[in-house]
């Protein structure tokens, strides 16, 4: 099964900033770099960096992109830096539904379909689901329809008391992991919408751990990473999640996509998935 949701979400633009100086200084301070450290990385001088930040010097387009690269500025915000310096955006933002994205859509769909019966999905920068395979449907059983309305949001679905939260056996640990993941992402980019989502899901009440039937899957297991343990049809299934992004993206939409796969964390979960008709 494939779910196609909304196109890339517009994050806080930052185009209202007075100039590149304050923006550059903000990113440098956020990365905890001195002017000298940034200068050494970007093959420049601390004096030139200082002049840019104070507005005494206008950097070239190439210098803006070089500084953005060494500051690990998200692609969307690199466009904002260029605009603040008086240059045109360097990175396009193509809707995922555009015909030119057909090859990318097909490749992602093949990738997550090939991962079945294990769950896999693709999300955008706000954790809205762009595509999902049949393995994900196992998680959605018994979830109220209003929780599945488009755009389907992974964070809301996972942490809402009417979503998956009552079925996640180690909810407090998994909740802490998800919130920490969002917090790290917020630190990397200026997104008021992501911050609002974080504050919303962090405020959800935490339901008690659910009761579930004993099964062979409940035997003690030494996990190699924090699993998501979720109840399904009287069984306790365990998954380790992995997130992949595209290297050196040249489009904002592509830069903000992430492919999340759920790897069974024990042999019993593997056996269960391979013998269950989903």
From TrEMBL:
HTH cro/C1-type domain span: 24-78
PROSITE patterns for the chain: HTH_CROC1
InterPro entries: Cro/C1-type_HTH, Lambda_DNA-bd_dom_sf, MLTR_LBD
Database matches in PANTHER family: BLL4672 PROTEIN-RELATED (PTHR35010), BLL5781 PROTEIN (PTHR35010:SF4)
Name of the protein this chain belongs to: Helix-turn-helix transcriptional regulator
């Amino acid at each position: 099964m494939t779910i196609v949701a909304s196109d890339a979400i517009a994050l806080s633009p930052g185009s209202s900033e007075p100039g590149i100086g304050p923006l550059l200084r903000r990113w440098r301070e956020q990365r905890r770099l001195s002017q000298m450290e940034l200068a050494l990385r970007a093959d420049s001088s601390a004096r030139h960096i200082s002049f840019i930040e104070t507005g005494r010097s206008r950097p070239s387009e190439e210098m803006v992109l070089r500084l953005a690269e060494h500051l690990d500025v998200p692609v969307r915000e690199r466009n904002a830096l260029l605009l603040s310096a008086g240059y045109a955006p360097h990175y396009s933002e193509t809707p995922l539904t555009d015909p030119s994205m057909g090859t990318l859509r097909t490749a992602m769909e093949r990738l997550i379909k090939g991962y079945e019966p294990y769950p896999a999905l693709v999300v955008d920068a706000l954790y809205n689901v762009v595509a999902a395979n049949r393995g994900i449907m196992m998680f959605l059983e018994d979830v109220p329809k209003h929780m599945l309305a488009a755009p389907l949001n992974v964070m809301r679905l996972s942490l809402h008391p009417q979503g998956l939260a009552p079925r996640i056996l180690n909810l407090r640990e998994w909740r802490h992991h998800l919130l920490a993941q969002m917090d790290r992402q917020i630190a990397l980019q200026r997104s008021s919408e992501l911050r609002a989502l974080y504050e919303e899901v962090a405020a959800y009440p935490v339901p008690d751990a659910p009761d579930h039937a004993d099964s062979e899957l409940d035997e003690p297991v030494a996990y190699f990473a924090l699993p998501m343990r979720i109840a399904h049809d009287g069984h306790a299934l365990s998954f380790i999640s992995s997130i992949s992004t595209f290297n050196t993206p040249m489009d904002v939409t592509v830069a903000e996509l992430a492919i999340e796969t759920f790897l069974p964390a024990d042999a019993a979960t593997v056996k269960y998935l391979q013998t269950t008709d989903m």
